[in-house]
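Record 1 of the preview.
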Amino acid sequence: MARKAKTASTTPGKKTVAKPKKAAAPMFENAVTARIVAVQDDIVTIEALTGEDGKAARLVKNEVIYICPTRSADAGVQERLKAEILRVRRRTADAQVYESTVGVGVGDPVEQSGEMLSVTLGPGLLGQVYDGLQNPLEKLAASHGVFLPRGIELDALNRKRKWAFTPAVKTGASVAAGDCLGTVQEGRFAHKIMVPFGWLGDQSGDWEVVWIQEGSFTIEDRVARLRDRSGQERSIGLAQRWPVRRALDAELMRGGRAERLYPEEPLVTTIRLIDTFFPIARGGTGCIPGPFGAGKTVLQGLISRYSAVDIVIVVACGERAGEVVETITEFPNLVDPTSGGPLMDRTIIICNTSSMPVAAREASIYTGITLGEYYRQMGYDVLLIADSTSRWAQAMRETSGRLEEIPGEEAFPAYLDSAVKGIYERAGVIRTSDKSVGSLTMIGTVSPAGGNFEEPVTQSTLATVKTFLGLSAERAYKRFYPSVDPLISWSRYLDQLQGWYESNMEADWTARVQDMQALLQAGEGVLQMMQVTGEEGVTLEDFVTYQKALFLDMVYLQQDAFDAVDVSAPLDRQRLTFGKVHRIVTQDYDFADKDEVRDHFTRLTGLFKNFNYAAPDSPDYVSLLKQIDDLAAAKRAIAA
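->
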């Protein structure tokens, strides 16, 4: 009698190894081509089986496989646990499992899918809440309850819903990968149905449209048929698949079907501190590191809600379950300031909490990026917010440790830098084959332990992105929100976008912003001196500098997220406010003493605070502007 194979140990780090058994009788969806030979937490080692032809099955890196635990089969229902091959060594391979491996044992059969980890791209993505593997969580909860069983996969898109397809080309037209065949209406967006991005055809990449039809179809229906020069024909539906770890536009750019452009305009967030001092380019990259309680969640919520973009993708890749629940419950109730409808109508949420398997957490950010690239290819401006990339990097660290790879600093994998660069470099501005221009802007939040910005994930991110919005616990405790520290934050886009600012804001906008940054630095220097010597230890001139810097901070850098007016400052209002603040802090004064200095800027601060809360069409708006001008003019009259 054959001895029963051992199951996976429940002790973390303990590894069980045994020789694989011969293939069992067919009881699975696909042919069994490999067997489990070792299990270590969520990492399994598989060995390819030899077929009837005497050849072993081919194992490919990043291929999706399905593990079929034989010891947990219930009433003839076979579990199929999704996994991805990470490393291949001849006939064996290491794979990460996207589910709990409890009950998985040596000898369990493995099915190969022949496909890399991929997502479904098509109409119906907007408004959805997915996990990192693109399973719709609402459907999972409806069919299986809030405690989700493992091994369950649902269709990412509704296969029964019909979409009205309008062709954009005619029979006989020549098209290529990425070209638009027609559109369906997805909410208020025209969703382009494109030739699959992997269909490169013959050497020229051209396909001839054999037939195309108009009407209402499901994503499974065929709407067109194409033929290449060799006579090969393929049918096209409304949806297609794409591997998440490959940039969607890479092959298109190599074939001349897309072009990467240089970012030339800022992403308008309506947050004064960001738009004026630390801009993020449309199609650019930024990061928001900060300690716990510094306001990362509120800030990223404001950016996603008020930024001038078409599509918003929020990736919660490993945050605490409470924060994720808050995100997926609040977003459907938020009003879109651009349309007046629900914000979820143009939002996709990908969420994997820190309690979910690390493999699924690591995959979630690639899923979000791929969906963003898809809508960018249609010519839309997409904003992707990843919260937080620290959890994503920690998931890589856990996986790397279990693979026994050589560790880098703080046990993160040695390839952390390249991995971080690999995700951020997929952002950018793209001109497609039909000359439409789309962008993907990526902002990642980082949660360094203890607010230590010197840790590896933060440093790797800072070496990659072009905007750094460093949150300060000290400013958060003072209730200075957003708590972005202007003394440590920076943006390389300020000089890069100088031409845009001079054309759309003021001719000397960048120079004036740099003057204000210098004032903040000078004011901090005086503050440090006063903390040692008191006000008596600084000159009147230095005290005026400190009060000017404090005034700038209080009335321009700070913004009330819970006020209906101050929560969002359009560029026209930013230009007006910044101009007045700049004139006030750059003029010279002849104060008698420090009390007069403090009184003057305290009164100005109060007026400006009230002005920030005043709606443009309100009587208070005009009245407060006049009071600010009168007070500033009165002091100018006694200027030296």
